[in-house]
């Protein structure tokens, strides 16, 4: 194998490793940014979650009402209820890919 081929191979495997790491980040991002309101299991049963009216994302009906594109938009722009911000926008905090991975992660809460 030439040096060039070796370098390419190293670069390629590095890229795969980084991509895998990012996907695996959803649970960590959830615990860090979302669980305070939505709870680790998506039930929204934390003190803050009850205060702001977080839904129970284990509920199949709530899951069916959640649409991927609307969920992504809500995550980017935040959510207002009765003129108050109940969820802040995350577009400056997390990347589009991270937000999509979080929506996918939320689907796993369904019971
Ligand atoms: C300060 C509390 C709070 C935090 C923190 C929070 N949320 Fe929310 N979120 C809410 C509330 C309240 C709603 C509206 C009621 C509901 O859908 O549970 C909501 C709604 C949503 C929706 C909208 C679903 C739909 O039907 O369109 C998604 C998706 C969502 N949250 C994901 C997240 C993710 C992912 C995070 C972390 C990056 C997060 N939330 C952090 C309070 C919060």
Any overview of this molecule?
By secondary structure, this protein is mainly alpha-helical. Helix content is 63%, strand content 6%. It has helices spanning 3-38, 47-52, 60-65, 68-77, 96-107; strands at residues 79-81, 84-87. Strands 1-2 form a two-stranded antiparallel sheet. A hairpin with a 2-residue loop joins strand 1 (79-81) and strand 2 (84-87). The chain is elongated, with a radius of gyration of 18 Å. It starts with a helix and ends with a helix. Bound molecules: heme C (HEC). Heme C binds at residues 33-34, 36-38, 44, 48, 52-55, 65-66, 70-71, 74-75, 79, 86-87, 90, 102-103. Heme C binds next to helix 1, helix 2, helix 4, strand 2 and helix 5.
What's the arrangement of secondary structure elements?
Elements: H1 3-38, H2 47-52, H3 60-65, H4 68-77, E1 79-81, E2 84-87, H5 96-107
Antiparallel strand pairs: 1-2
Bound molecules: heme C.
Number of domains: 1
CATH topology: Cytochrome Bc1 Complex, Chain D, domain 2
> How would you spell out the order of helices and strands?
HHHHEEH
Number of strands: 2
* Mean pLDDT metric: 92
Class of secondary structure makeup: mainly alpha
């Amino acid at each position: 194998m030439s040096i060039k081929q070796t370098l390419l191979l190293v670069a390629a495997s590095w890229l795969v490793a980084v991509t895998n790491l990012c996907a695996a980040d959803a649970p960590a991002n959830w615990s860090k940014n979302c669980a305070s309101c939505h709870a680790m299991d998506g039930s929204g049963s934390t003190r803050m979650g009850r205060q702001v009216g977080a839904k129970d994302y284990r509920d199949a009906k709530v899951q069916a009402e959640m649409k991927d594109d609307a969920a992504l938009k809500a995550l980017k722009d935040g959510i207002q209820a009765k003129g108050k911000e109940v969820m802040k926008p995350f577009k400056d905090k997390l990347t589009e890919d991270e937000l999509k991975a979080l929506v996918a992660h939320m689907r796993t809460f369904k019971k």
